[in-house]
Design goal:
Layout lengths: L1 E2 L13 H8 L31 H18 L2 E5 L3 E2 L7 E7 L8 E2 L2 E4 H14 L6 E6 L5 E7 L2 H10 L21 H13 L5 E7 L20 E3 L11 E9 L2 E8 L9 E6 L2 E7 L4 E2 L7 E5 L10 E3 L1 E2 L4 E6 L14 H8 L4 E6 L12 E7 L6 H12 L3 E5 L2 H4 L16 E4 L28 E4 L2 H5 L2 E5 L5 E8 L2 E6 L14 H17 L4 E3 L4 E3 L5 E4 L9 E2 L6 E3 L5 E7 L2 E8 L22 E2 L2 E4 L1 H30 L10
Parallel strand pairs: 4-7, 4-9, 9-10, 11-18, 19-20, 19-21, 21-22, 22-27, 28-34
Antiparallel strand pairs: 1-2, 2-36, 3-35, 5-6, 7-8, 11-12, 12-15, 13-14, 13-16, 16-17, 23-24, 25-26, 26-27, 29-32, 30-33, 31-32, 33-34
Helix pairs in contact: 2-11, 3-4
């Protein structure tokens, strides 16, 4: 303990004053009321004497109060192990705190039961305690993707309140969670954001404080903070200790075989650890890590567990998920459609196969009229459909509304549908099959994805083409147009899916479109759109889920808590970012869905990244702060004075009770 005004301690000499006051205080002799003289023995004469220490508690309180007054006047400072900012001048500071909330921060600090994140959160609280009025503070979270948790503010109370809301198990942010997470580490992105936060602030003294274990999976990368335009201080070097961790990255089931992938910190081999596949807590099969295991139970209920212990326990289990088959597209071509000159499948099927896309082509003899028949497809292609029956319209409408992508190649059959058939709700008005007034496409009208291939359609030959009602055209976005500005390729969004339309069929006798490169570009773009509209069953932690055109989305996380879906900035699309690994159960507009979030493999590498020499200095702060104990001492002194008053009142009451008249037994004569 140190003192700002040491001379004030001379007041301690007055600590003896209460002692002498108690010793010198005199009291009156007790006064007694006498009855008949013959009944009461005479009181012996008693001389007044000096008082002894009658009330030792009151004396002690007064003596301690004088000691407290002397200490308070000396302004004591207590040195303790905590972070604090250093100031070379009296100027205010613009401070950006980079708080790492990634999975590696769940590792323990040696024998300390706290996690690295808990120590980092405490360090942020200590730094805020050393700020003063005029300082600006912002907080950036370094879990991928890096994001601003608290915009720079001079309201230090709001900053402290924000840190108080951060619990030990996840962080308050856009995803609605609070504290530790299972995200990967994005230190470079966090530092870029932090530099941007302080760059626009008026304070001249600008700093970035990093509270991280620096384990971002890139230990050989250039030193962090090297060449930074804003000074960086790594305030907690003690949490950079190396560690060993192994994680089950994924567990996939294919038939009766389950493949479990185990990743470990380089140099750490799980020689004595095993992988067990469990069902409701019962071990079905167990084998040495990281070899494969087999089981025959239903997927979704199996869990792969890694035995033993390591630095992070959260990544030692993973749900078993059935391997997703390649996406499929359904192709419906008229049975009398012309094939290529060499025979074989229709041209559109051959083109899709030749593109070698990650998609399986499934030719169908007719348009499905049940929703269940379309559940396995990500896209449906209808070449010159002769209208749709009510059942087909309902099945395809549901398919598109749930995220499917429909491609309509309009031709002569589309213009002459049978009675009761139509292309609603995709095309509201009848389609006309008319002569082409101006052959060829205008390359200047091309939009993505036809920017490069539109030139191949400059001399497109098509004697006739489909023409849409102007009202229908306005509902679509044009991707490509004829030279007379009539639409050739259109696209529109419907529900969670898309409708693509082209005003030519894919038959070779209708046009030479299938012989041009733009035809392949069209099919490739359509398949990509279908893939993008589908959500994979498995995603990495921190990847954002988007729900376009969904009205109600509820998400239940692996811990049973709800993950809120929020509207994206400048859009009506709902989105959510899972920050924990495990199984998530979703309900999207009443439709149930299960998704699995897996850890990022590089996050198990706990080797810390190198740090720039300038970031390790103590020019910006210290971890041994001198804390002014005056406020605490003043409160204690007030408590002592209150206690003295209580003791004085009690002593006075006892004295008055002793001086009260005493009665005599009844019947005394």
């Amino acid at each position: 303990m140190t003192f700002l005004f040491g001379f004030a301690l001379t007041a301690l000499v007055f600590v003896g004053a209460p002692y002498f006051a108690h010793r010198l205080r005199r009291r009156r002799a007790d006064t007694r009321e006498f009855a008949a003289a013959h009944l009461v023995p005479p009181a012996p004469p008693r001389a007044r004497r000096r008082s002894e220490l009658e009330d030792r508690a009151l004396f002690s309180v007064r003596a301690i109060a004088i000691v407290g007054l002397a200490l308070l006047g000396a302004s004591p400072f207590v040195t303790c192990s905590r972070l604090s900012l250093s100031r070379s001048s009296g100027a205010s500071v613009a401070l950006a705190i980079v708080l790492d909330d990634s999975m590696s921060m769940q590792a323990k600090l040696g024998t300390d039961p706290r996690s690295r994140f808990a120590r980092a959160r405490q360090g942020a609280t200590e730094l805020l305690a050393s700020t003063r009025e005029g300082d600006a503070v912002g907080i950036v979270l370094a879990g991928a993707p890096a994001r601003v948790a608290l915009a720079p503010t001079t309201d230090l109370g709001a900053a402290r309140a924000f840190l108080d809301t951060i619990a030990a198990k996840g962080t308050t942010g856009r995803d609605g969670e609070a504290g530790e997470s299972d995200r990967a580490t994005d230190l470079e992105g966090a530092l870029t954001i932090a530099r941007g936060l302080v760059a626009g602030l008026p304070q001249i003294d600008q700093r970035i404080v990093v509270l991280s274990d620096l384990a971002d999976g890139n230990p050989m990368a250039p030193p962090l903070g090297e060449g930074s335009t804003v000074p960086i201080w790594n305030a907690l070097p003690e949490i950079r200790a190396d560690g060993a961790d192994c994680a089950i990255v994924r567990a996939d089931r294919a038939g009766l075989r389950i493949r479990v992938r185990v990743a470990c910190t380089p140099g750490s081999v799980p020689t004595k650890r095993t992988v067990a596949v469990t069902l409701a807590g019962r071990v079905l099969v167990e084998g040495p890590a990281p070899k494969e295991a087999s089981a025959s139970e239903e997927p979704g209920t199996l869990v792969a567990r890694l035995s033993g212990t390591d630095a992070i326990a959260a990544d030692d289990t993973a749900p078993v998920v059935a391997e997703a088959a390649p996406g499929s597209v359904a192709v419906v071509v008229p049975t009398d459609s012309e094939t290529a000159a060499t025979g074989g499948a229709p041209v559109v099927e051959q083109a899709l196969t030749a593109l070698q896309l990650d998609v399986a082509v499934r030719p169908l003899p007719q348009i499905p009229d049940r929703t269940e028949d379309l559940a396995a497809f990500v896209g449906v292609l209808l070449d010159d459909p002769p209208g749709l029956t009510p059942e087909e319209r309902h099945a395809l409408g549901t398919f598109v509304d749930r995220g499917g992508v429909l491609l309509l190649a309009l031709g002569p059959r589309s213009a002459t549908p049978p009675l009761g058939a139509s292309l609603e709700p995709f095309v509201a008005h009848p389609v006309a099959w008319e002569h082409t007034s101006s052959p060829g496409v205008d390359p200047a009208s091309a939009e993505a994805p036809f920017l490069e291939s539109a030139a191949s359609l400059r001399e497109l030959r098509a004697p006739r083409r489909a023409e849409l009602d102007p009202t229908d055209v306005t509902a679509f976005s044009r991707l490509l147009s004829w030279k007379d500005h009539a639409p050739l390729v259109l696209r529109r969004t419907m529900g969670r899916g898309e409708i693509w339309a082209i005003t030519l069929p894919f038959a070779l006798d209708a046009s030479d479109l299938p012989l041009r490169s733009a035809f392949l570009a069209l099919l490739e773009a359509w398949v990509d759109a279908a893939h993008n509209r589908t959500v994979p069953k498995r995603t990495e932690v921190g990847a954002t889920w988007s729900f376009p055109f969904a009205h109600a989305v509820t998400i239940q996380g692996p811990d049973g808590r709800d993950l809120p879906a929020v509207a994206q900035t400048h859009a009506d699309t709902l989105s959510a970012t899972p920050s924990r690994v495990g199984v998530y159960r979703l309900r999207i507009d009443g439709r149930k869905e299960v998704r699995v979030v897996e850890p990022v493999e590089r996050e198990v590498d706990l080797r810390p990244r190198k740090l720039a020499v300038s970031a390790a200095g103590k020019a910006f702060g210290d971890n041994h702060a001198a804390i002014d104990a005056s406020p605490t001492l003043a409160i204690a002194l007030l408590a002592l004075l209150t206690l003295e008053l209580v003791l004085r009142v009690r002593a006075g009451s006892a004295r008055r009770a002793a001086e009260a008249p005493r009665g005599f037994p009844s019947g005394a004569a």
